[in-house]
Amino acid sequence: MNLYLWLNIFTMGTLFLSFDKKVAFYKYFPALLLSIFIVMIVFIPWDIYFTKHSFWGFNKEYLINSYLLDLPIEEWLFFITVPFSCTFIHYVLLAYFKNPFKTSFTKPFWYILSILLLIVGVFNYHQPYTFWAFSLCGIGSLSVSIMNIRFMNQFLFTYLICLIPFFIVNSVLTGSFTEFPIVFYNQNSFSGIRIGTIPFEDLFYNMLLILLSTFFTNLFYNFKTKKQ
Q1: Global pTM?
Q2: Burial of 38 (0-12, 13-18, 19+ CB in 10 A)
Q3: List of residues 6+ apart from 39 with CB closer than 8 A
Q4: CA-CA distance, 105 to 138, in Å (whole number)?
């Protein structure tokens, strides 16, 4: 049962909506491709290391069992389909919805959250997933907040909306609807706190993933349009 592959196909369904006239997401494809490359530079080595040291793993029952650098092909696809879909959501929100947040709120919010993430990460250095997820997310959110708080104002809206598909997809991955999870975790590698079947750390792992894809797509696209 190639459930993980089907999950990636389901996640990529936004491709067919990319030609909506108001969003015109296809215009962002070159910039998005570069941002996905950056996402992979960060997350693939992380994934390989954690898999090699059994901090997490993948259930062969739900894979096509083709691997690259010891990672399932489906896991590689995950770092394409999720950034694509979440970045698409980001630009749909920009085109169709008014951002409910103001910079006067989001600026202190991101600074406080980033510092809290760094503190939690440092104090949990003995739990690899907790340490890296919190620390890298803290560094990423703080860095982008300093560089472009206006972007982070919109990103908060994007992330909160992306939590809806996040909980659906991650619930499937972590075994909410199957006998065994597709992705399983070493209990000693994280805090043990779960939302349903989803490790709490996944919230910030995915926040960093979405942040990198949306921020660099925005950066590269704006750079390209200003040069023209």
Answers
A1: 0.94
A2: middle
A3: 79, 83, 209, 212, 213
A4: 18
Which pLDDT value is given to residue 227? 58
Q: What is the pLDDT of residues 18-27, one digit of tens each?
A: 888 888 899 9
pLDDT given at position 1: 60
- Let me know the angle formed at the C-alpha of 206 by 101 and 128, rounded to the nearest 5 degrees: 130
Instruction: Give the tokens for residue 167.
Output: 């909980």
Q: What is the pLDDT of residue 18?
A: 83
Low-confidence stretches of the chain (pLDDT < 50) are none
Q: What is the pLDDT of residue 29?
A: 94
Q: Provide the 10 A C-beta neighbour count for residue 60.
A: 10
pLDDT value at position 224? 72
Q: Which position has the token pair 């995950």? A: 78
DSSP-assigned states of every residue in the chain: --HHHHHHHHHGGGGGGTT-TTT-GGGGHHHHHHHHHHHHHHHHHHHHHHHHTTSEEE-GGGS---EETTEEHHHHHHHHHHHHHHHHHHHHHHHH------HHHHHHHHHHHHHHHHHHHHHTTTSHHHHHHHHHHHHHHHHHHHH-HHHHHHHHHHHHHHHHHHHHHHHHHTTSSSSS-SEEE-GGGS---EETTEETTHHHHHHHHHHHHHHHHHHHHHHHHHH-
